[in-house]
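Practice problem: predict the structure.
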Amino acid sequence: MSWLIVLMGLSVAATIGAGFWLELKPRQLPTPAWLKGGLLANLALFATGMAGAMLLGVGDVMAAEPAVAAGEISLGQGLALLGVGLPTGLAAIGAAIALGPIGSASLAVIAEKPEMFGRTLIYMGLAEGIAIYGLVMSILLLGKL
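Answer:
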């Protein structure tokens, strides 16, 4: 298991190193083919290491003795709590995906016409509402437990 963590650490370090290299030499626009291949290899290595760590970690967790706590949670309750948090997490991801293009377009519009600030703020608030809806759903589901 430790070799997977070492490989994942090397992958992250190589990706950070490539980022520094691109930061120091930004004018060389056609990036070398080895850099693109290296980044893809690092991504594949990291994903493989993460999957391996999760698969090997399941065995370690299942073999461990259960911790005794004052208020024990059953498997069903644990899965229910994960299900309660899922709407908030997925809604936040959706809001982030929506806010990226809206935010960049808003900045471009505000740079040209500063009087459009209020209108662009409304669009950003509508996109952020997606995350608030997920939070409301989680609160409602938590009330059912």
